[in-house]
Amino acid sequence: MRTLRKTTTGLMVGALIASTLLLFSMPLSAVTPEHPEITQLLADARDKAAELSRDADEMEALIRTDVSWQTHAEMLESVKEHVNQLGRIAAQLEQKRDSASAWQQQAVDRMLPVLKELATNTTAAINHLNENKTRPLQTSSYPQYLSENADAAHNLSDMISSFVKYGDSRANVEKLEQKLEIAGR
């Protein structure tokens, strides 16, 4: 029994070493190449998400000031437009998803639920404002929509930005590998 364990353990260690060597001998681009259009769309989404995040902060700050409902409506319109722009980018990303690399697919998959949450909260805030023009801040739901939108906008912006940075880092590593003519290329 002891010999069987040693043999099994030896085989498992050998298989682990062989698979690790195989993994590290493969170039990064051999896994699945990045789709350049998706890389650009993600960069565009990052920029729009950053704008949305700033708008959501300004919108949330309005809660602490005494401004008219029209000012709230103008800011909500700006937030809505950025959400819609991100929605159009997301639709393009979804169309190209199958030709994307694994990390690009993951970026698309992770951003969609957050974007849907933003759209839902923005619509709820707009509806609330339309129904309560004279006193939008008198209920707890309106500030809650704005707070949740700000949180979701920050999360989306940070997430997309991190994916874009990851893609840039991968591209830099691949360039360095080519420049240094690292084995396996």
Textual characterization of the structure:
- With 185 residues, the protein is mainly alpha-helical.
- The protein has two domains: 1-31; 34-180, Up-down Bundle (Four Helix Bundle (Hemerythrin (Met), subunit A)).
- It has helices at residues 2-25, 28-31, 36-61, 69-96, 102-131, 141-180.
- Helix 3 packs antiparallel against helix 4, helix 3 packs antiparallel against helix 6 (141-180) and helix 5 packs antiparallel against helix 6.
- It starts with a helix and ends in a 5-residue tail after the last helix.
- 23% of the residues are buried.
- The model is unreliable at 1-30 (pLDDT under 50).
List key phrases describing it.
0% strand; 2 domains; disordered N terminus; single chain; mainly alpha; 185 residues; Four Helix Bundle (Hemerythrin (Met), subunit A)
Identify low-pLDDT runs.
Answer: 1-30
Quaternary state of this entry equals single chain
CATH-assigned fold name of the largest domain? Four Helix Bundle (Hemerythrin (Met), subunit A)
Total number of distinct structural domains: 2
Instruction: Give me the Rg, rounded.
Output: 24 Å
Mean pLDDT: 83
Q: How would a textbook summarize the main sheet?
A: none
Number of strands: 0
Tell me the series of helices and strands, N- to C-terminal: HHHHHH
Strand content: under 5%
- CATH H-level name of the largest domain... which superfamily? Alpha-catenin/vinculin-like
Report, as a whole number of angstroms, the end-to-end distance: 45 Å
Q: Which structural class fits the helix and strand makeup?
A: mainly alpha
In CATH, the architecture of the largest domain is Up-down Bundle
CATH class call of the largest domain: Mainly Alpha
Shape: elongated
